[in-house]
Fold each of these.
Amino acid sequence: MGDVQGSVPNEVGVDMGEMTKNSKAASVTFDNVTKVYGKTVTAVDNISIRVDPGKLVTLLGPSGCGKTTTLRMIAGLEMATKGRILIGDTDVTTLPATDRDVSMVFQSYALFPHMTVLENVSYGLKYSGFAKDETRSRALEGLQLVGLKGYDDRLPSELSGGQQQRVAVARALVLEPQVLLFDEPLSNLDAKLRRQVRQDIRDIQQNLGLTVVYVTHDQEEALAVSDRIIVMRNAGVAQEGSPRDLYEAPVDRFVADFIGEANLIPCVIESVTAQIATISVGGIKHQLDARDLPAGSALIAVRPGRVRLTAEAGENVIAAKISKATYVGNHMEYIVEAAFGAVFAMSDDVVNPFLTGQDVGLGFAESGPVLLPGE
Amino acid sequence: MKRFSLAVVSALTALATTASTGAAAEKVTLYCSAQEDWCQVMARGFEEETGIKVNMTRKSSGETFAQIKAESANPKGDVWWGGTGDPHLQAAEEGLTEPYVTPMRGELNDWAISQATSAGDKTIGIYSGALGYGYNKDLLAAAGLPEPKCWADLTKPEFKGHVQMANPNSSGTAYTTLATIMQLFGEDKGFDFMKALHVNINQYTKSGSAPIKAAARGETTVGIVFMHDAVKQAVKGFPITVVAPCEGTGYEIGSMSIILGSRNLENAQKFYDWALTADVQSMALQVNAFQVPSNKGAETSPSAPDLASIKLIDYDFKLYGSSAERRRLLKKWDEDVSVLPQ
Amino acid sequence: MIFWIVVGWVSFLVLPWYGVEDGLFAFEWLFDGYPWDADYAPAAFLIAQGEKLWLTPLILPLVAVLFCLGRVKSDPVYAKILILTGAAGFCWVFMQGFGIGLRGWQFEWLEALFGPLGDRQFGMGFGAMLLSSAFLFLFTQGIAARGAINGDVFVVSTIGLVIAIVTIFVFFPIAKMLVAAFVTEDGNYSITVFASKFFDDRIWGLSCLTGGPRCGVAWNSLFLAVVVGFLSTALGLVFALVVTRSNFRFKRNLRALTVLPIITPPFVIGLALILMFGQSGAVTKFVADLLDMQPSRWLYGLPGLMIAQTLAFTPIAFLVLIGVVEGVSPSMEEAAQTLRAGRWQVFRTVSLPLMRPGLANAFLLGFIESMADFGNPLVLGGNYDVLSTDIFFAIVGAQYDQGRAAVLAMVLLTFTLGAFYAQRFWLGNKSYTSVSGKGDSGVHPLMPRRLAIPVYVLAAVWASFTVIIYLMIVYGSFVELWGVNNTLTFKHYFTAFSFSFVEDGIRWTGSAWDSFWTTLKIATIAAPLTASLGLVTAYLLTRQTFVGKNAFEFGTMLSFAIPGTVIGVSYILAFNVPPLELTGTGIILVISFIFRNMPVGVRAGIASMSQLDKSLDEASLTLGANSWQTFQRVILPLLRPAILAALVYSFVRAMTAISAVIFLVSAQYNMATAYIIGRVENNDYGLAIAYSTTLIVVMLTAVGILQLLVGRINIGRRSGLGSK
């Protein structure tokens, strides 16, 4: 994919002069929305969410959690069974897709195979009532924006996967919609390309001030591009917040486990004073934010990078043993066996790594662990 | 179209609804069940002579009957000319046609008028043709068969697989054959004959004249049909010999009826009278139609079978044309004859 | 919405309510007593004069609908008004139409209820028809406003329209015909009459298995249809493979050749077969001389029917399959090849299964066509009776037994229904989507050798057979008397198509011109209507979900499944009397063609559309195009092969159909095939075949023109762009 442009994150920003900040960017509000397929299958169960104008919000969750249905309801491709949907201040609940000022980038790109790249990009403009010249200049501008200048007369089948993807983005973008939707747009691209394209999308979004709703099941992607993330599970919202909130303060073990990896270790809250809990885990004491939990058994979630390993046992460390050590270039990965089970840990020290079988002391970083309700 | 004037309509609004069925003076719709070119000659001839426009549709008599029946609530046709007499009789019986006594009766043969009286003047004979069969000379010689002369010859074992006739369930011609055999031999012997014939039949065709066409093309040796149909194939140049069976035979009366509820009744009657004149009936010669015309003064083709020299039975059109008898005979034929092995 | 309100008022106030006798396109009425003459008066004027007072209630919904002006779409009252007024108006137009006919009240109970009427009415005209469509569309807009089908007005209206016309022109006449199955001789209704006719041994007898003379017609038809369905699908696939997946040089010629039988008027193939293989046929004689046997009549019956029908229906299978075979995504085949499957394995495990929708559709069409075929059994059937001809002769034969015809039609319908569901079952719920929104850059692989050799042999044999048959036909039109006198002559063409130049232009003196021009005109009108209705229906069936979709799909297949003869008679029964008085017009011919041939458009459309990824439609919708624009700009261009198939098929069938036509032709509207049948009945084969040959040439030209007009789609390298 050597033809990919925009590998320097800001390169796309150079052409931004023509397109001004999108004054149309609108909020999206879901008001107790439920979607039932047929009679029994509830795809979305009574959710209420809000996407602020000019923000990029990601719907994240495992397959079947209802995130794509939610997206399609914003687009008007599915109609809510119950509840209200608003774009800006307008109630669009019963409005068909055609009449909503929303455009969407499909997972399969859905480029019209019988039209050239330019015709594809002009398609929506034509139906939005733009004059011929205007349509053409806006379409060309859109192509330039995604770095595909000069590809106007190609058919989609003559483009690489990454180029097709960017045509799909351009096609949606040129309409300057109130809301732009992405349905797993990167899933057909290779890893390196994925990183570049997601950065491009984020740059365009920020530069143009677009409201974007983005669906993915890749948590890394979600963390990288989002202003806010909505984690969905079983047709409902599991947690909503900024990437940092979700990563550092997951509300339950589902979110903790889904956003980045987390070691979930059983513990006991011994006392809570002024919202600081003192817990006992693996025989040591640790103090952290109580998050409104009462005394009793609970879990702590610890990210692998927040596990501290020391060469010898000492005060406030748990005795453990390295059962596997893996060198992955810029850091080390360890599986550590302790009394309460295996813990996954990472360490930046690649110069003097621990060896498999070595006895170590296990502790937690000051701000790392988070308390979760127990089972 | 001539229409009531505005003044009349506004004065008599209540009567105005009749306007759409008001007769148009100068057209007539003809359903024709004879051969296409004969129908054309009739239609054009009438137009030229009277200036009345003829809308002509040509269909077989069975199809025309079905159409008239289907259209009975709102008839579209005026005159039905040609085709074998049975469906005309049946139409009369079912009240689909209208009685009319033509001034031309004095010029007609007796059989034509008896056809009319048996149907309460609702139909009339326009031509007649005797039943018989034709054989393909070449095939007969190739198979080394003797020349057949009588009905009985066709039941001989050496004719096995050589005879074709239509299915009496689907063809008026074949039903006439069945009725003729009943009248010739009596019902019991008649059915014995049909059973013996059944053994020799290679195919019961759907349409009445198909057997002689198959014989003409060499697809069967013998075809049981009306003799004028066989003559036509011979005249065209096919190697067909026409046979008038020695035991005697029945005949059909091609008929004409006026459809009940005709929208152009006056013109229909005009056509009716015209079609029975000698000159018009002589036009059959132009189109190789070899039936015998009903007008005594009309010319007959020299190739046409001479009814005087054929032993004709006194065919009981009233009995054998009735629905009940027809159904009874066909049922019996279906159950006793058609299921036998061949 | 406002548009339809205006249409409603205009049709009520301005247009003549009843049918004008001179046809819809004669405008004499404008100058002849309009608007006061009761024949031409609009409904409002009739009521004003105190006539036809039963039309008065129509004012209510027309006024009521005005209340939704000025309301917004999302207002529930808006939807409610539209639904109520639309439904009420539509129902009333039809209820009064059926309730009051030519002779006053149509039903005795109505007379009992209201007393004798003393008035009557004729068929619906412009006013009545437009008003009912206005009500229909107001109703559908109401439904859409309530949020049905994502609130899509185009889709809801289309569904409403298609359901309405399929009900009027398919269900209604067929129901009328089938009721006849329960009618006794004296006009009453009875189940026992039906039962005795239904369980007749002539229909269900199985004695042929135990050495008896023959089996029931039902079994005969079924067996023939299954065999022909398989043979024509297999041969259609063979040709489709040769055309798309081989380096065979004369692909184009082969393509034209496979289309030949479909543009051949009925009887012609049968006659040609008889001349070659009949008892006195050239081939039979030659073989008999060679083996020193008596020439036999082997052709008549099952063998002849099988050959003739397979010849006739393979092209239909080919037309359906070619789109599907081309549509199988090459990248899937390439993927399989890279997974170490040999070419044969790829074909067997990937290509063939992906063609399943096409194969199933081709089989279904072959099966149904064979069931309904009329011309071939008439000429070649021998003693092998089949349902379609039996139905015909039950109606027009010596017994005039409409009840039996109706029973046989029911049996036929049952088989068709069975085939339809068997096809459904076989296809199951698997996805056959293969053209997705991603550009496809693959190229179809060539056929595996194991397959190629038998395919080439089969295609070659069948192609040369077809060529010989057609040479015979052309030859037959130039000889004096086919089979007897083989002197070459142009006389048949002169008789049919002579013309002379006179001062004011050309005078068409030949006897065939009349029917020729009528046929051409009607086919040209019917073809685009048929194709569009078929494709729109296919779009609704594949892309939309709505209540009663299965019944709807079956309804569209129904008219195709019932033989033309039954359609012909049922159309006369249904449309000879008000409210829809259509017999004797050209319109009834056009309508019968539309509904007879639409199913091919539907099948071809469904087969191609199920290969188009749904995200293409959705992308278009989210880009601001509405569903009509999406259909027009995205779906249609990708459906070009299906459009071509539908257009060609409906045009050609309109020119060559016979069985329904024979009941519906009238003096002014005589069709070529009815003329030809007259000639065949008269043993005038020369003229019949000369006319047929001319028709074949005309249709070939038309197909060529259509191909140019519709063009080809460009969706990837396999369409020839890769060579750039």
Amino acid sequence: MEAQRPKNYWTARIRPKAGWFDVDLKGLWRYKDLVWLLVKRDFTLIYKQTIIGPAWIVIQPLLTTIVFTVVFGNIAGLPTDGMPRFMFYMGGNIAWQYFANCLNRTSKTFVTHRQLFEKVYFPRLCMPLSTVLSQLINFLVQFALFIGFVIIYALRPNAVVHPNWRLILLTPVMLIQMGMLSLGCGLIVSAMTRKYRDLAILVSFCVQLWMYATPVTYPASMIAERFPELLGVYMLNPMTPLIELFRSAYLGTQSYYMNYYWLSVSITVAIFLTGVVLFSHAEKTFMDTI
Amino acid sequence: MDERLLEIDNVSKQFQLGSFGAGTLKQDFKSWLARIHGREDPNRKIGYDASHDGEWFTALDGVSFSADRGDALALIGRNGAGKSTMLKLISRITAPTGGEIRIHGRVASLLEVGTGFHPELTGRENIFLNGAILGMRKSEINAKLDEIIEFSEIEQFIDTPVKRYSSGMYVKLGFAVAANLAPDVLICDEVLAVGDLNFQQKCLSKMTDVARSGRAVLYVSHNMRTVTQLCNRALFLDHGHLLYDGTVERAIELYGGAGNRDVDRDLDAMPRPRKRGETMRMQHMTVLNSANMEFQQDGEWRFRITSVSNIAEQNLRLRLILLNNMLAPVAMTQTPAFEVAADERFALEISCLLDGLAPGEYTVKLSLVSDRIGGGNNYYDTIDDVGKLVIVDDPLLNQGFRWQARLWGNARMRPLEMARVEAQ
């Protein structure tokens, strides 16, 4: 019944599930204002909902850092690459928390927004994307606090904290990579919640475990010294070189692992693309099964 | 050719029935453990018949139609006909399993107004968020903000968090956003059920405007009055098939059913609303003075009806309600109260005078009711559609005019009395 029409006459053609690589990037671009408004909403809600409001963003990493300093530093006596314990743990902690929060939230995309998804169409990727961006804003607040401490520690007489300016220029790359990695993992999990609804609960537990497989509470050099034969496997974790690089840049720890960084980037890109493809595939019929 | 806004091309939708995967990792893991230990699956429901699992249910089967600029299309059909599925496909909430849907421009659906409202945000903030969810750009919302706020009728509360809104205000704001987003195809699914009468009327005229301004409206409702008011074309869906595409009148006729015109009817077998027909039940009806249920204007309809009652009742009545071809009630009449004993089988011979009823087809609804002490009715048995009653048009009785039910309604008043008087 289709008559001859100009090539771009139809804004949308809705067909049965097409191939695996049917990702609607053009649609996502059309809805960029929605992503922005969702980020703005998350930000507004932080001010409106909690009693201490935005202060919580700052208090939370400080508390965790203090706990880490006491437990892993003072009690367990783990090495910190010669850095002040507080700075060492804070650097690892805020970077990890950004990644973990993104992953925890994006992996629940379909479950959290089911009611909305049942009623209106918009590119579903808007939701996890806005989550990652609003977490980034939280991170930047914490990051500013961190920078404050870096300056204080670096200006001390006999300072051991020496920011590495060349590596600091890589900060945007690191942030984008962390965002992409958490988004990729989150999308893969969300796509799988189509079959297993309780998977999202398992995720927060797995993220906890993942933290211990990442040099957040200890330096990677500790693994290199004690288990040199495991180092290759250890570095397959894309977060490992990332956290190490982050600390090298702002604290000036020796960056032994730059050659592993490119491996981390390639793994991130692979996970991200897999996530986007699986998610786009799942979103089309997700509402029939949940 | 630039008139075409929507094409539904041989579209089908199937759902898989039964359980495919237990739904949670925990259950699947338990089932797997049981299987390797040779025990019975703990998640299998007792007496569960797995033979339907994996079978496909067809909600839509090869439906094709199209909508042009200015079309106001109604989708009519009984529950389960596939109307909602169709709207879900067009609004892209789920994908079809066959065929293709082509859309020119933007589709906005009012499947439920106020979707995505966040209770903590103010009305104004929610307008932006909701508008963006429905596909508007920020600049478009800004340009229409005043119009939206005015339409919503809640100007003084626009900077209050919506959690403090009444449900009516909530709907008004939601509809105001959706109605003003200038879609090329507007999809509505009975959104008019809420809100006061004034606001409903306002919504209807807004939808008419949408159609008149060269866009298309697709409307699903069980309210035939709004359908006739709003739509200029109708589609009749039944069990996933598109049976009719044409005038609203004909589609509504099909929806009302061809109608049972038998003079001998087995009432016992007819469907009832829940809880009706349990203590008392109408069983059989015989029409005594017509062979095809056609009657003259101001004529008489005589029938015999037999029923059984399990209980004694002092003040029983047989109530008869006539519905017009849009299934709106037109008239009611009932018998005087009578008495039945417990476990009695009783027969009534009824004469129903059809005075004042306009020509046309009517659906007959019958109930057995009693007057409750302190007012109100006690319904023992109700049949919503006993069958059709046809009043034949006789222009001679209407000063030579053919009766136009759509314009004139269903009641014929006596001719006006008149006397010529001296002009002042």
